[in-house]
Amino acid sequence: MTQKNNNSLNPVGKSVPRIDGKGLVTGQTKYVFDLKLPGMLIGKMLRSPHPHAKIISIDTSKAEKLPGVKAIITAKDTYGIKFGSNEFFFPQTADQQALESDKVRYIGDELGAVAAIDEETAEKALKLIDVKYEILPAVFDVMEAMKPGAPQIHSARNNIALILPTHFGNVEKALKESDYVREDEFYLPSAAHTCMEPHVCVGQFENFSDKLTLWISTQAPFKIRETLAKCLKMNLNNVRVIKLAVGGGFGGKLEMLPMDFASCLLSKKAGGFPVKITYSREEEFSFSRRKHPMIYKLKSGIKKNGTLMAISGEIYADGGGYCSYGPTVLAAAMMRIFMVYKIKNFKMTGYRVYTNNPISGAIRGFGGVQSGFAVESHMDMLAQGIGMDPVEFRLKNITTPNMITTNKMILTSNGLRECIEKATEACDWKNKKGKQKNIKRGLGIGIAADVMGSKMYKSHESAGSIIKIEEDASVYFLTGAADTGQGSNTALSQIAAQELGISYDRIKITTADTGITPFDTGSFASRVTFISGNATKLAALDAKMQILKVVSQEKNIPIEELDLIAEEVIHKKNSSVVMSFEKAVELCYSFNYGQQIIGRGSYNPKTTPVDFRTGEGNVSASYGFEAQIAKVEVNTETGEVAVLKMWDAHDIGKAINPQSVRGQIEGSLFMGIGYTLSENLQFKNGRVLNPNFANYRLPRSVNACPVESILIETIDPEGPFGAKGMGEAALLPTAAAIANAVYDAIGIRIKDLPITPDKILKALKSKES
Amino acid sequence: MQSKNYWYKSMTTLNINEKEYQLDLKGHETLLEVLRDNLGLTGTKTACNEAECGACTVLVDNNSVLSCIILAKDVEGCSIETIEGLSHEEELHPIQQAFLDNGAVQCGFCAPGFILSTKALLDKNPEPNLEEIKKSLDGHICRCGGYLKIFDAVKDASKKLNNHDTKK
Amino acid sequence: MLLNPFNYHSPKTLKEACNLLDTLKNARILSGGTFLVNNLKSLKRRGLKTPDDIISLQKIPEIKGIQIKSDKIMIGAMTTLNNIAQDKNVEKHYPILRIVSENIASTQIRNMATIGGNVACRYAWTEFASCLIALEATLHFAEKKKLKEISAESFFKNNAKPEGLLTSISIPIKKDIIAIYKRVSKTPGVDLPMLTVCIKVSLKKNTLLDVRVVINDGASFSKRDVSIEKALEGSNLDENIEGKFLSNLNPETYKLDNEYKKELLRIHSKYAIQKLLVQINDNA
User: Fold this and answer.
1) Backbone dihedral region for residue B51 (phi beyond 0: left; psi -120 to 50: alpha; all else: beta)
2) Does a structural domain hold residue C1?
3) Closest CA to C196 of C236, C156, C233, C240
4) CB contact under 8 A, C189 and A120
5) Interface ipTM > 0.90
6) What domains are there in chain A, each with its CATH number?
7) What tens digit of pLDDT does each residue of A515-540 get?
8) Chains within contact range of chain A (3+ C-beta pairs < 8 Å)
C-alpha cells in the first residue's frame, strides 16, 4: 500500500525527498498568492506620502461613491488598539495602530484601506480619498534623532524606544591591564528580505456567523492570530489564521502588518466577502520591513598572549517609525557575543532609536548579522595588533561545552572548536593564510552561534503536535510549525516517523492552521527543528505507547518489553516480531478495543528572556555554532572582490535531513554574500531609493561560488535525536569572513558594508599616499 | 457563416501545453495574466513584474522567456509551455525529479521558472558544463537556496535524460 | 490589469506596418518587448499618459533573420540577441557581435530582445551602438514608400530620429578586422553596463588601419574617441600601442561623475587595448 524503501525506514539522518516537493516542482501547490475565492474583492492600503505628519481629517465620501467600491476603512472603524511584536516584555513598544488615527511616522504609514471589485477601482478610490495633513519636521538620521530638540516621533524621550545597558565585571580595570587596546566603528546598512512571494493575505470576516478567517503568507500564524484578536477584541478561537505554502519569510512575515488587519475589517464592512491584499514588489521594498541599520562601536582590550580582557561598546540601531521586533534585534546584536567568546568584563549599551524611516524589524539573524560583521572584524584586528594568527586567537577565547556564560546562558553541547578546526583544515589555512598577497588572494574567518528559539515574545514559546493514526494505518500529522521553504514539514515528519517506528511514506502533514493545529510560536530564531521537533517526538511517543498498550493487552506482554521499530512491533526480550504496524493498528480499531490513536505532544524549552536591566538571560535551550572561512581574490586596479570559495563548518547537533541542512546553509551564506558585496537598501528623506530588483542587486547563478559545508554532529542532549535548529548562523559571520579575507589579500580594512569596488580603490589610494 | 468567421477572428487562440485555448482578449493582456487569471494556470508566478526575477518564465517555441512582459496576442501561433505541461499524469518529468532528488527546491516559488529554463537548456545542449548552466540560469533569482543545488539538479537531469534516450 | 488598454495591431508585412505607423498618431512600436512593456507598466503606475495603439512587429517575417551576402551581413531588425549570438556565420566574420549579444541582461531577455529594439529605443547605454559604429554598420529604415539609410555613427551622433521603421542593419564584411569589446557591469554579474569600450582595427602588414575606438560612458550615446583614433591610425605593432592609447584617453571628456568611474575608464581601456593586442598576436 505505501511505497517503502530503505530511506523511508528510520529516516532521521537521511536525505529523504521533501514531503511536499512534488506539488512544488509541478506548480500544483497553491500559495496564498494564488488564492481565489468566490466574490473575492481586491484591497489596497491608503498610505501617507509624508514621513511625519499629523492627520487632521480624512474624507472618504467621494471614494465611497465610486462604482465598484465595496468598503472603506480608517482608524474610526477600529478600536484604536496599539500593538507591538515584543510588547509582552516591553509594553512601551506597543506603539503601532493597525490604522493610524493621529499621526503618521514614515512614508507609507497606513491610515486606511479600500476594498473594490478590482485593483483599478481600488486604486482610483484611494486617489479620491482626501486626507488633510499637518506636516511635521522629520528626522532620518539615528544620531540626529537622539539629540534634544529633534522632532518627537512617539512619546519616548530623545526618540529612544529602548536602551539595553549591559555591564559585567570591571571593564575600565580590564582595559588598563590590557597590553593592546583598540577602538573601531562599523556601519551596517539596511537590507531587504526579498522573499520571492510578496506579502499577501485574504481576510474573510463573516461576522454574523462569528467566523473570521485569514489566509496569509506567514511564518507565524499564531502570532498573527494573537495580534489580530487583540486589535479586533475577539477571542482566539474566533480568529482562524491559515498558512498555505509560503514563498519565503526570512523574518519579514513574523508579525501582523496593517494589511492583514485591513483585509479582515474590510471584509466585515463589505458584508463578509473575502478581501485579498497583495503587495507589489515596490511595496515589498518600501512598506514592509527592513533590516535595522546600525552604528556599531567597539573598544576591546587583550593581553599579549591573546586573552580577551574586556569588550565594550555602543550600538545605535535605526528603528524607523515603530518598534516591531526592535528589542529582540537589539538583544541579539549584543548577547550573541557571549555565545562565542568567554568574556568576564563586558560593557555595552544598545539604543533602539525611532526615526521617520520605514520600519526596521526582524530579518534573518536578527541583530546577529550586524554584530557578526562588527565583532568578527574587530577580533581579527585585535589579533593582528599582537601579531597573532586570527584562528589561534579565536581558539584561545571561545566558549566551551557545558559552561555558563557571564550573562547566564547555559551552553551544553558546543562544537565551536571542532568547527574552527575542521574549517581551517579544509581550506589549508596554515599554508595559505597570509601567504598569497602577491596574487591578491586571502583567507578570512568568522565565527557565530545560533539560538534555538528565544523567549522574547510571550511567557512561553512552546510547540505542539498531534499525530493521528487512521484505520488503514496511514498517519495524519498536525503541527503548528510553519514551513516557509526551509523544510520543516519534511524534517518534522522524519522525526515523527523515526520516533513512532514507521515508514516516512505513511505520513501526511497539515501545518500552521490555528483552527486545526496546536500552537507554535513560529518559524524564526532557528527554533523549529529543536522546539517543534521535540513536541513532535513527544506526540509520536504518545501515539506509539497507545498502540503498544493495546498490543500489550492483547498479547499479554508487559508494555516495557515492547517497542515499535521500522514498521514492526518487537518483543525486546528476544528481538522477535510480535506483529506488523498495520496489524497493530487494525487491532486497535478492532471490535474488542475500538481505540483511536491520537498522540499529542507539547514542548516548551526552559529558557529565560533577556532581562533588559542586566543583559542576563538563557534565551535558548541549546546553541548551535559555526565557523566560516572565505577565500577571496581582489583586483587592485578595479577594486572588484571575487569570492572564490567558502567553507562552512556547522555544529547542528544532528542533521535530520543532511541535504536540507546543506541547502539552508548555502542559502543563508549567499544571503550573507549579497549583504556583504552588493545589497544595500538606500534611503533619502525617508524614501526607499531602490525599491526594485533592478537597483537592489541580489547574487545570481553567475555569482555563485563553490561552498564546502562540513556538518559537525555534537548530538545535543536536549534536541530531538540530538538535533539543534539551524538556518541563520550561516549568515552571521559571512561579511566578516570576507572582510577579513580582503585584509589578508591586500591589507585593506573596510568597516562599512557593502564592500564595493569604489571603497577598495579609495582605501588603496589613501594607503599609497 | 460570416458571423462565425468574424467571431473566430476576434478570439485569440493560444496553444499552451499542446492544448488550444480560445480567449476573448482585448490586446493589452500580458501572457502572465492570461495564464494565471484567465486560465487558472497558477504554476507560473509573479514575483517582481519588472522582468528581473525569472519567476514568470515560460517556454515559447522552446525558448525561455518572461511572460510578465509578453503580450498574449503576440504569442498566438506559437507553442507555449508552462510548468503544468511538463509532467504527464502521475509521472514527473526527469528534470522535476532531479530538482527533488538534489534538494534544489525549498520554498518552491522560483522552482517552475528554473525548471523550464533547465528544459530549454537541456533540449539545446544535453551535456552542459557548469559555466553553461550558470549562464543559462542567469535570469533567475533564488533567495532560499543559493543556486548550488540547482546546478546539481541540472547536471543530474542531464544524466537522467541521456540515460532515458540511450535506453530508447 | 498591468497595462492600460490599447488597440493591438499585428501587421503581417512591412508595408502594413508602415501604413499603420503613418496613420496612428499616438502609437508605439513593440519589438521584443523588453523595454516597452515595463515602460508601459511604469507609466500606468504613475498615472501618466499611455499610447492608444501598439504596433507589434512579431509577425513580420521579412524583418527577421540573418543573411550573409558576399560583401555584407544583413541582420533583420527583429532578430533576437540570442539568434545573433548563436549564428555560426556571424561568429565566423565578427565574433564581437556574439560577445556583445551574449552579455546583455539575462538568457530570457536575450531570447526576446531584438537588435532593432536595442538600437531604436534611444537609451544612451544600450550596447549594440558601440560595435555597430565600430564595424561601420548602416541602419536601414522603411520610410513611407522608400528605404532610407543612415550610418550607425550618424544615427547616434546626431540623436537622429528618422520617422521610418528600422528594418535591418547591414555590416560590411571586411578582411583582417580585429574587434574587441569590454563591458563594465554596474555590479558583478548580470546588470546594466556602467561603461563600455569597443575597439576595431584593420590589420595590414602589422599596421593598424581604419581604427575605431567607441566609448560609452553610460550617460550619453556611444561615440568615437577621435583623439585616440588619430594617435593609433597607421601605427605599427612594434610601437607602444597601449601607451599611445592611454596617453590620448581623456576621461574628462566623458560624462563620468566621479573619480572612481574615471579610474575605471582608464583601467578598462587598458584591459581593452591589451586584449586587442593579445587577439592580434593569437591570430598571427
Assistant:
1) left
2) no
3) C156
4) no
5) yes
6) 21-30+462-603 (3.30.365.10), 33-136+199-278 (3.90.1170.50), 294-455+609-768 (3.30.365.10)
7) 999 999 999 888 899 999 999 999 99
8) B, C
